Recover the amino acids of this structure.
């Protein structure tokens, strides 16, 4: 029962990732692409949490934390590059 | 009892994934960069927090790492959206045509000049004028 509901949730997150990839491809400006990358990463944190339940390993939570940290730093650096230059 | 808590956690995870899907749909349908920032970031923050909370209800012994992740997402996601919106306004990405007021720009918009009043009355006139 729990695994069935989690597989449905996994399907919704997969649909969200597909829509985000569409925006990443057609986005008119580069800021659109950065937003799509940010949304993709934050959705992937939830996805990694569900995979950590389905494979029953707690070590994936550390991977999700490091992934979110790298995405946060990347978005900050890109925004600073557009605003003031490196 | 334990089974009930696990099913409640799975339903909370399902609601969170629904919020993630709606945020990605807003990323497709919104007309503007700034609207896309709003739709993408707010819905995604709530969806990720609900999903991780549901996983934490299923596995009650993982609570430490999950609380750290929830606090990290809650702090870092609004900061990145704020910085991105500031950068987008600085390099001059145009607003959508239906924008009512732009408080960051130097010169006031045409509608504000014509009304010659502050933003609140412009908003109410826009809503009830016709």
């Amino acid at each position: 029962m729990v695994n069935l509901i989690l597989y449905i949730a996994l399907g919704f997150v997969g649909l969200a990732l597909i829509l985000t990839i569409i925006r990443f491809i057609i986005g008119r400006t580069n800021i659109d692409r950065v937003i799509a990358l940010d949304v993709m990463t934050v959705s992937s944190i939830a996805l990694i949490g569900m995979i950590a339940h389905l494979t029953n390993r707690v070590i994936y939570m550390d991977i999700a934390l490091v992934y979110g940290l790298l995405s946060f730093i990347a978005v900050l650096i890109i925004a600073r590059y557009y605003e003031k230059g490196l | 009892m334990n089974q009930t808590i696990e099913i409640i956690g799975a339903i909370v995870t399902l609601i969170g994934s629904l919020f993630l899907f709606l945020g990605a749909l807003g990323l497709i349908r919104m007309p503007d960069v700034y609207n896309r920032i709003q739709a993408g970031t707010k819905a995604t923050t709530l969806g990720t927090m609900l999903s991780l909370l549901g996983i934490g209800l299923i596995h009650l012994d993982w609570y430490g790492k999950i609380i750290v992740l929830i606090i990290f997402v809650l702090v870092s996601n609004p900061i990145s959206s704020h910085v991105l919106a500031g950068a987008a306004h600085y390099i001059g990405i145009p607003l959508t045509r239906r924008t009512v007021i732009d408080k960051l720009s130097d010169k006031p918009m045409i509608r504000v000049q014509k009304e010659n009043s502050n933003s609140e009355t412009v908003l109410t006139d826009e809503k009830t004028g016709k």
